Amino acid sequence: MAQVSLRKLVKAYEGNVQAVKGIDLEIADHEFVVLVGPSGCGKSTTLRMIAGLEEITGGDVAIGGTVVNDIPPRDRDIAMVFQNYALYPHMSVFENMAFGLTLRKFPKDEIKRRVDNAARILDIVPLLERKPKALSGGQRQRVAMGRAIVRDPKVFLFDEPLSNLDAKLRVQMRTEIKKVHQTVRTTTVYVTHDQVEAMTLADRVVVMNHGVIEQVGPPQELYHHPATRFVAGFIGSPAMNFIPGRLEGDAHGLRLVLGSGVILPVPPERTARYAPHAARPVLLGIRPEHLTDKKPTDKRNIADFPATPEVIEPMGMETLVHFRIDGHEISARLDPACPVAVGEPITLAADMDQMHIIDPETDKVL
Amino acid sequence: MSVTTASSAGIYSKAGSLSRERRWAMWTAYASLILAAIIFLAPPVYMFITSLKSSGEIANMQGNPWLVRSPTLENYSALLGNGMFLRFFVNSAIVTVLVVAITMVISVLAAFALARMRFFGSQALATGVFLTYLVPDTLLFIPLYQIVGGLGLLNSIWGLVLVYPTLTVPFCTWIMIGYFASIPKELDEAALIDGASWSQMLLKIFVPVAMPGIIAATIFAFTVSWAAFVYPTAFVTTPDQMPLTIGIVSQLVRADTFAWGQIMAGALLAALPPVVIYAFLMDYYIAGLTAGATKG
């Protein structure tokens, strides 16, 4: 097991297109790190550079303290699980899992012991004699994970391993992957575009965009304290609402005035932080779960927020209400018992302790 | 049933008929297939019928030529009793086995390199390989005659073993490039990470997975080599070095005397090995081995 270090890592393709623009990242031993971001953000390229499948244009990748830039994949002591499983179709499940060990000339009984052990962990013992074509998608993905586990590598690399599974199986396999990591404790780098997967699996989430790291942190920190507008909008579902407004101050403190005339008081403990931005245009960022129906509460800093629902989506455990302010689509999460109707104005409660103010020029959260 | 109910209720009217369209498609398909079968099977059937006739019966212009009045195996016994026919057969077999082996080794290695190892000019090389296939052998045999002569291999089956691959390697390489390219890239990446070298990847992953493609290429190389006519006609002059294709023609046609019965029997026997190869390998060729490699 080992830590993984990325130092000023760059990947440029022909025509000087930079897929990864000099990222720095330290992944601790035993840690489960998830690289997340939209398509083309450089997360898969980064993973493939760690694996040795992609040449490094600049910077270093170090595994266990050794720079591995010029070491071929087979000597990096890593194992990788691919999105489309990449099982060898002519080999049985046992042979698939044993292939890496056979090439490394492990003794037969040791290979059998390791494969049996991995098969037990993944609950695929009855499938060992089958060929991949006789397996379901979920079973194939387990075999692909088994192939990684038997090697007992320093680092596990996962490249969107659940993207090909249906929604139900994906949730199931997500739990499975977490369970496996809790058992084997191998340092893991996991790439996904699904922020829910990232949040649920990771010790730390790395949010990437346009080849750079936007923010690194534990899931809860990213959710509660996003550093940039991109992270704020990417983490959380439905996405955070962004509403243009203006900070205005007087003797009583700061207020946020939205274009539509809605005025929201800024909590007094944040006044000092936002004061330098008074009288300047800003973006209010507030998550749908912090824009709810009004109910008696002893919480401070709850502000009225008028809305006229345009679309109502009853989800069972909650009701999503969509409306507009100054042409901007806003979502709110309401108690399913709350009576709402399309076109009938209501007053929602905005939890101002949970809101974020974003500088529209830098896209940084203030 | 629902149609009847609906029309009796007068709500729906029936538009078109799926079953009628399907029946029409089936008839057209059957008619075309039967026509094609007749066209392709008529020559070998006629060969078989003629091979069972005596020379006298073949020369007799009376009656239906598609019927055998007094069947005889004399053509077969004369042919098999003649040592030269067996010599031709052995020559063809030696040349074909060696050519298939040489072709497959060269084309599998070349295709693997061209399909998977990115190197400068690999694309141009792949196209170049295919272009060489477009030059007809009727054009090539003149310069090749000089080369084979220069090597002292004229009138020798070894000369044929040397030149046949110029016919088979380009096309087989092209088939294999296509087949290797269809193997998901992740499979070699998984093998690389599992610890395979390039040669192990080729032998343990690509060759087994691409077996249907390799069999298709083998069948092609076998057929081309077994049926080659122009090169042996140009390069071989004595019967002891002749393969079947020209052996039959040169030995059973004497000036304007054609031993038709024996020619037909010989041609039929010569066609047997390719038929057997096709019959055994077709199923394996069609079976899609790559199923299950990736999502699908």
Automatic annotation (TrEMBL), chain A:
InterPro entries linked: AAA+_ATPase, ABC_transporter-like_ATP-bd, ABC_transporter-like_CS, ABC_transpr_MalK-like, ABC_transpr_MalK/UgpC-like, Mo/tungstate-bd_C_term_dom, NA-bd_OB-fold, OB_MalK-like
GO molecular function: ATP binding
UniProt xrefs under Pfam families: ABC_tran (PF00005), OB_MalK (PF17912), TOBE (PF03459)
Lineage, highest ranks first: Bacteria, Pseudomonadati, Pseudomonadota, Alphaproteobacteria, Acetobacterales
CDD domains: ABC_MalK_N (cd03301)
Residue ranges occupied by any ABC transporter domain in the UniProt entry: 4-235
Keyword tags: ATP-binding, Nucleotide-binding, Transport
Family to which this protein belongs: Belongs to the ABC transporter superfamily.
Name of the protein in question: Sn-glycerol-3-phosphate ABC transporter ATP-binding protein UgpC
Origin species: Plastoroseomonas hellenica
From TrEMBL, chain B:
Record-linked PROSITE patterns: ABC_TM1
ABC transmembrane type-1 domain location: 89-281
Residue intervals passing through the bilayer: 24-49, 88-112, 124-145, 157-181, 202-229, 259-281
Topology relative to the membrane: Multi-pass membrane protein
Compartment annotation: Cell membrane
Keywords of the record: Cell membrane, Membrane, Transmembrane, Transmembrane helix, Transport
Family: Belongs to the binding-protein-dependent transport system permease family.
Listed PANTHER family: INNER MEMBRANE ABC TRANSPORTER PERMEASE PROTEIN YCJP (PTHR32243:SF18), MALTOSE TRANSPORT SYSTEM PERMEASE-RELATED (PTHR32243)
Name of the protein described by the UniProt record: Carbohydrate ABC transporter permease
Protein species of origin: Plastoroseomonas hellenica
